[in-house]
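Here is one chain, start to finish.
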Amino acid sequence: MNRIKTYIAPTEGERAKKLALAVMDDPRFEPLEVNAEIPLDVQFRIDCEKSVCFEDSIGCQAFPTTTVTKIFNAEFKEVSDYVASALAPQGHLYMQLLAAREAGHPCIVVVLGGDNQVADACYQSLKTRYHGDELKYELESYKKRLQDFEARCLANGCPVMRWQIDPFSRLLSTAHKVLCENTMLDYRPKPAEGERELVAACGLTKGIGPETWRNILVEYQLGLFPRGDYAKPIEEMAGIGKKRAAQISPLIRMVYANRVRA
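Its structure:
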């Protein structure tokens, strides 16, 4: 797997240093580079090979590969800057997110603080202009407007994350999952050995429960079948040694002229 390239805008100063340290400690990422052309503060990129399926002139399926670049953008906001740029009439953060969304890549806003810090920033912004009940009203208004702003950001594919603890390492973890590995399989159930086939069968369908599948599996076995006319032998696949191949091979069924052979 290629390592993820990380770029940061030239004006980030102390935040660039902290992100650089986080990147140095994470082998999934290449060293941080400065780039003045990215739309937000940080950009992550990775080149991936993608198979494209189509039929050629004689009707055979072909699976050529092409290289695609996947991109994930992030914007850092100190807490006070976040409140001002999100709610001020100039719409500064809106314009930044508009540019990022128009680029067509997933993006995120990282607020470098938690809920309490955001609430305090709202208070600091309003306390010199309002007092008493009027201040309470304006604080509640700020709270509701920020809730609405963040809900709209999420709905438009650019969530706002209030990360007070370990924001830079959390950003790297998020970037890796967005670009490389978004499956939840690491958190799948770990059943006893006798239940593994039943759990796998239940995961294949919606609305068919374990009782029905248990009866089916008395008569049938789950198997692996080639997707095309040819499938690479298990032992020739990357990352699969003799031990794993021996576990997988009994599940494989090859199809020859409408006949299935083990």
